[in-house]
Amino acid sequence: MAGEYTNELQVSEEDRLQFAEEIEQAVEWLASYGKDDQGGVTRLLYSDAWVAAQQALAGRMGAAGLQTYYDDCGNLFGRLEGDGSQRGTLLTGSHLDTVVCGGKYDGAYGILAGVIALQYLRKRFGPPARTIEVVSLCEEEGSRFPLTYWGSGNITGRFDKNNVPSVRDNDDIPLSDAMHLAGFGMNRYRSPLRKDLAGFIELHIEQGIILEREQKSVGIVEGIVGQKRFAVRLKGATNHAGTTPMRLRRDALAGACEMISWLETAAFQEAEPFVATTGQLTAVPNMSNVISGEVHFKVDIRDSDAHVLGRFSERMKLAFFEIAARRGLIADIDEWVSSQPVRMDREMNGTLASICAARGLSCRTMFSGAGHDAQMLSSICPTTMLFVPSKDGISHSPLEYSDPLHLANGAAALAEWLYFYGYKEGN
Question: pLDDT (tens digit, 9 = 90+) per residue, 195-236?
């Protein structure tokens, strides 16, 4: 895909305000599917709330003039058929599932903005030159089963719904059983695997505070950081807190604390967007008057540079082993997640920058510190992402919020981007 952006379409101020009203209403509407007692949204993969939300979205897509269909892992598509003059399918959208007691905007915004943008383009311009689809991806978060990107992973070939990973949820239900109970995975629908995609754009809330702090209207995502996650296990000696001298202790919790302190200090010495986090710390026996003989904790490190990730990981392991040896502890460090940084398409990002400049939208380029379906789709087609500000940087929470005018700015930029690549690019 190639082409030089020209400002042939600019969404009017009246249309932008209409977008804001439509998106605000649509977000509240979709949040009613999976609304929980804590004021959040819990919509887990293949749950009753998830099924109802996908069915409701199919109805909304149809009302917008789109042809709807599912694939066999449960991704839902709304299709605006092209006139055949340009090859390939242009795809936009995001994920439908949420974390437990999550927010209204994460994932949902990208789907709803895509429906609104395609309805606007269809009514104003009719059929595109290249077919455009909006997708409600069935899963991204990994909240019900211990895997992520089940929806986009089936599209790209990372996963195969005919060879389902042997994972189970907290109720011991296998993923394959849950999929079948929801009506998928039984060859009733078309294969999820796609070979026809000409490009993908994902519109998303930032889930961070950078855009709000810098008073930017949108963020053009340069890339998505790579991740490494480690499970650390320390073995010491459980003993009496009152009778064991300090110099004779093999305190696993004290050793873990020194490691965690080292991690934070070392992380501050790296350049942004590098981050390191410790979580899921468990001490055994976890009693106030007993020295901990065993500790488990997790480490999550992320950066845009694969070399930095590798170098820091090796430094960390050496430091942790040195601390353990000095304290008489046995350390085991298991790397259980490793994903490489992913770059978005430079030419598509340039088009987004031109659109923002033409509209007078203040923007900045940035890396995403969170994972997204876009990193999966980038393996099979040119891909880009656009962020809008998140209030106070809060996400995965009932307090998640983005101003409707910010949401409308993103939807307007999306509509213009889809117009360029779907209607004008190559003409």
Answer: 999 999 999 999 999 999 999 999 999 999 999 999 999 999
Closest CA to 413 of 348, 352, 363, 350: 352
Amino acid at 212: E
User: With the CA atoms of 291, 294, 296 and 297 taken in that order, what torsion angle do they form, in degrees rounded to the nearest 10?
Assistant: 40
pLDDT at residue number 2 = 53
Lowest mean per-residue pLDDT among 13-17, 30-34, 61-65, 304-308: 13-17
Q: Match 């409600």 to its residue by tokens.
A: 136
Per-residue pLDDT, 427: 47
Q: Record the tokens describing residue 311, joined without a space.
A: 């170098």
Spatial CB neighbours of 318, under 8 Å, sequence gap ≥ 6: none
Q: What is the pLDDT of residues 35-53, one digit of tens each?
A: 999 999 999 999 999 999 9
C-alpha–C-alpha distance, residues 293 and 285, integer Å: 7
CA pair distance 322, 186, nearest whole angstrom? 52
CB 386 within 8 A of CB 408: no
Strand partners of residue 78: 68, 134
pLDDT for residue 133: 98
Three-class DSSP labels, the chain: CCCCCCCCCCCCHHHHHHHHHHHHHHHHHHHCCCECCCCCECCCCCCHHHHHHHHHHHHHHHHCCCEEEEECCCCEEEEECCCCCCCCEEEEEEECCCCCCECCCCCHHHHHHHHHHHHHHHHHHCCCCCEEEEEEECCCCCCCCCCCCHHHHHHHCCCCCCCCCCCECCCCCEHHHHHHHCCCCCCCCECCCCCCEEEEEEEEECCCCHHHHCCCCEEEEEEECEEEEEEEEEECCCEECCCCCHHHCCCHHHHHHHHHHHHHHHHHCCCCCCEEEEEEEEEECCCCCEECCEEEEEEEEEECCHHHHHHHHHHHHHHHHHHHHHCCCEEEEEEEEEECCEECCHHHHHHHHHHHHHHCCCEEEEEECCCCHHHHHCCCCCEEEEEECCHHHCCCCCCCCCCHHHHHHHHHHHHHHHHHHHHHCCC
Residue 426 phi, psi dihedral angles, 5° rounding: 90, -10
Provide mean pLDDT across the span 326-337: 95
Tell if the pTM clears 0.85, that is, is over it: yes
The mean pLDDT of the chain is: 95
